[in-house]
Amino acid sequence: MADMEKLIVEAKARGIEIVMDLVVNHTSDEHAWFQAARSSLMDPKRDWYIWRDPDSDGGPPDDQQSFFGGPAWTLDPLSGQYYFHLFDRKQPDLNWENPEMRAEIWAMMNRWFDRGIAGFRMDVIDLIGKDVDAEITADGPKLHDHIREMHGETLAGRDVVTVGEAWSANLDNALLYTGRDRGELSMVFQFAHVTEGWDPAFGKWRARPRDLVGLKRVFNAWQQALSTTAGTACSGQTTTCRARLEIRRRFPRMAGALGQGAGHRAPPDEGHALCLPGRRDRHDQHVLRPGRRLRRCRDPQ
């Protein structure tokens, strides 16, 4: 903790603000909360996670699948119940229906803000409103209730930035996260520009031939839909720059595909930059105009 606090202070002294990764859809199964929850059916933290009794045959309660493959339920032999995990079995999902658990999340976020961080990148935030029994995981019925509560308890009145990772975000619902009057997040990054290159049948495991025009079409659609009505630009503008780093981190082959071709291998970032809309000023005019040189920025690695 002392190292982190020193980092925040030293970064501020150099004009750098720290944005932390916030993972609150799940915890580790080694986290103290889960260790307490699995210790007894009567433990106060038992309801901080999602538990269900076995099916009549002793198997999982239903056939929901983990994003990492296999059942989304793992049997806890200590209690005889199954716990839910959309990711690895060592990452049990938190029960966002529990107000005491949410209050602990708010307290944790406020502690970090008080230490001086500038905001959060919120991991898979579109999964926290899930309704497990209805088998609704992304974009669930309580999602925006939870985010608005988060805003009121932690973000309101602070000069901070938030960006939510939302695979389920689309042109119809993105403004629910970022609209000026919504009281939720600053930005959301989505992945239409990523899935644009996926095979219809095999998904990310078999990339389609690169299509620069198709990629630009995705960015333009998001820019046009959100640039005038969101509190801060979503995807097509500010968040697209963050999405470039997300592509490099999660999907290196896609990033590399933009820079590959017969007789040349342009740096992937330059290929991706061709698709990015210019930053707009307060008069909604492109700052980057024809004839100006585009300075290449390096990833902070």
Description:
With 301 residues, the chain is α/β, with parallel strands linked by helices. The protein is 33% helix and 12% strand. It is built from ten helices and eleven strands. Strands 1-5-6-7 form a four-stranded parallel β-sheet. Helix 5 links the parallel strand 6 and strand 7 (187-189). Helix 3 packs parallel to helix 4 (143-155).
Low-confidence residue ranges: 231-248, 279-301
Mean pLDDT rating:
82
Helix content: 25-40%
Shape: globular
Q: How do the strands line up in the largest sheet?
A: 1-5-6-7
Looking at this protein, list some descriptive labels.
single chain, 301 residues, alpha/beta, four-stranded parallel β-sheet, three-stranded antiparallel β-sheet, 11 strands, 33% helix, globular
How is this structure best summarized?
This protein is an alpha/beta fold.
Task: Explain the layout of strands and helices.
Elements: H1 2-13, E1 19-22, H2 32-39, E2 51-52, E3 73-76, E4 81-84, H3 99-115, E5 119-122, H4 143-155, E6 161-165, H5 174-178, E7 187-189, H6 192-195, E8 198-199, E9 203-207, H7 212-226, H8 238-250, H9 252-257, E10 260-261, E11 264-265, H10 268-273
Parallel strand pairs: 1-5, 5-6, 6-7
Antiparallel strand pairs: 2-4, 3-4, 8-9, 10-11
